[in-house]
Write a structure and sequence with these properties.
Layout: E1 2-6, E2 16-20, E3 22-25, E4 32-34, E5 40-43, E6 50-52, E7 59-61, E8 71-75, E9 82-84, E10 99-102, E11 110-114, E12 119-124, E13 135-140, E14 143-148, E15 172-175
Parallel strand pairs: 3-5, 4-6, 5-7, 6-8, 7-9, 8-10, 9-11, 10-14
Antiparallel strand pairs: 1-2, 11-15, 12-13, 13-14
Bound molecules: calcium ion (3 copies).
């Protein structure tokens, strides 16, 4: 069992710690990475990657370096999964054309994005994300970070709890 730690923007805040059993890392090219039946930390690296967590509570990180134009597809599978699109240092998708598509998000899971910028939530249809159901785009400032597939009703915004400049001053945002 190993720890994955997320640093928030305020160095006085505690690190968020998530545990996993197996680490799987892609290359700089487009990868399709399949997790195990246990808890995985899957990193796509550069390229347009498809990450499949499978069973277990997985941590999915599509990106390699910041400021990439990747479009990654993250599927958590069974378990309660964590999708990481930023930390206290940066938005991982720090380019207008890059983002992560989460295909099977449910409201018990966690999405972590950077909270340094004003966050604007928008729900609208995205033609190139699978089905005809509207998808939810989560942006940090003017940068789209995460697209939650088929989760686009504005009613779903009520599910989201942010801590941007909140009482805990996390500098990261958890949507739960
Ligand atoms: Ca890759
Ligand atoms: Ca897994
Ligand atoms: Ca999983």
């Amino acid at each position: 069992m190993a720890d994955y730690r997320i640093r928030f923007s305020d160095p006085n805040d505690p690190l968020a710690v998530f545990q996993y059993d197996t680490e799987i890392t892609g290359t700089q090219f487009n990868n399709r990475l399949q997790g195990t039946n246990s808890s995985d930390l899957i990193r796509g690296g550069a390229g347009n990657d498809t990450l499949l967590g499978g069973n277990g509570n997985d941590i999915l990180i599509g990106i390699g370096n910041y400021n990439e134009t990747d479009r990654d597809v993250l599927t958590g599978g069974g378990g309660v999964d964590i999708y990481v699109a930023g930390n206290g240092e940066a938005n991982f998708y720090n380019n207008p054309t890059g983002d992560a598509i989460i295909t099977d998000y449910n409201s018990s899971e966690t999405i972590v994005i950077n909270g340094d910028r004003e966050l604007r939530f928008a729900a609208k249809s995205v033609a190139n994300v699978g089905t005809s159901s509207p998808d939810l785009i989560i942006s940090a400032g003017n940068l789209s970070q995460v697209i939650i597939q088929d989760f686009g009703s504005t009613n779903n915004l009520n599910f989201f709890k942010t801590d941007y400049e909140g009482e805990n001053d996390l500098g990261g945002v958890f949507l739960v």
